Amino acid sequence: MAEFAEKYRKLNPFVQNSVGENVIWGSDDNDFCDVESINEGPFNRLLSDIELVATDSKTRARFLVGAAGSGKSHLFARLRRKLRTGQFTFVSNPPTSTGHIRRFVLSKVISGMKKPVMSPRGPLAYSQLQRMVYSLLQPRLRNKHLNVSQIHERWKKISRATCVENM
User: Fold this and answer.
1) Which pLDDT belongs to residue 44?
2) Total domains in the fold of the chain
């Protein structure tokens, strides 16, 4: 029986491709094996929620709960690759002790915000956190027509010493 299972194991695209954080945050779509019909319902509900956020500008949090191997991480990776422009935080296996949950979730939020922003062409030169800061700065700039990438390019040219002097 073990020999039979081993022989057909390579026919399952997910055996060698568990969805770890390297795959979730990765930019190489070749590393990500996807079958869109798997978890299609939850995926479409999440997309609808995100569209709702885009229209009413209210923040929401969604929790995916399920048994190990049920596709939660895979679903998150698919959503991130599909949208490319959202702000993403991945929190896996949170502690069950209430005293540790806040610190754990905060560390995951910060970790996720350090990851690069994805574009249709791959990862951009700035993180999700930088994009958020640039978006907050945008209305205060003299030239309000700069997009986030242009702000990033201008920001890179400012030395740390200049930033410290102007504080």
Assistant:
1) 92
2) 1
